[in-house]
Design goal:
two-stranded parallel ribbon; 7-stranded parallel sheet; alpha/beta; Rossmann fold
Length: about 210
């Protein structure tokens, strides 16, 4: 079973949408190991509403925490501690798309971060990048952390409005394949997700499945 971990350069960059598109494109399973802010809805529910294929399975979270804060704080708020070693991956026949929480170095407890979780799950990373003031720095820092960890990276997906100057600058430092661009939209529907899934499928198959 192939494991793909979708992480971002920060919070709110489009990880859930990208996860839905990849899941639809590959007819994969989806799993959000650590959900915070569940009181405001879950990413699993969002992905479930955006998929149209009949093969994908949405697996339950290992930790589903109510407060919309960093995982370590959300867990403390509920009198528990997140431990990577306690997170058991679901049994899946299909490729498994795993969505992270925030960025790579978001703390899960006093010693472990999302990056530790990625290594533990032996997953291959897709980095989601969105342009804003400071995003080049955040992207290069994320790339440096991934490289230092030894985690395998399939490439990156840009989310939101294009910025050629920023993308050229990032490309000069990070030797990552760009797997696709997701444009800015006021709303995303299952039909739009399906459209992007078809568009990104060849690159995803080439980089993740058929090599």
């Amino acid at each position: 079973m192939k494991r793909i971990f979708v992480t971002g350069i920060g919070t709110g960059v489009g990880k859930t949408l990208v996860s839905a598109i990849i899941t639809e494109a590959l007819e994969a399973d989806y799993w959000k190991p650590i959900q915070t802010g569940a009181s405001e809805g879950t990413d699993s529910d969002t992905v479930r509403k955006l998929l149209t294929n009949k093969k994908s399975v949405i697996h339950p979270e290992a930790y589903c925490l109510q407060k919309p804060v960093s995982p370590h704080e959300a867990a403390q708020n509920e009198g528990m501690e997140i431990k990577v070693s306690n997170i058991i991956p679901p049994s899946a026949v299909n490729t498994l798309v795993i969505e992270g929480a925030g960025g790579l170095l978001v703390p899960l407890n006093s010693t472990e971060t999302i990056l530790n979780l990625i290594k533990y799950l032996d997953a291959e990373v897709i980095l989601v990048v969105r342009h804003y003031l400071g995003s080049i720095n955040h992207t290069l820092l994320s790339g440096s952390a991934i490289k230092a960890s030894g985690v395998k990276t399939a490439g990156m997906i840009y989310s939101g409005r294009a910025n050629k100057a920023s993308e050229d600058a990032i490309g000069g430092f990070l030797d990552y394949d760009v797997l696709g661009h997701i444009d800015e939209h006021s709303d995303f529907t299952p039909a739009l997700v399906s459209q992007y899934a078809k568009k990104l499928k060849p690159a995803l198959l080439s980089k993740l499945i058929n090599r």
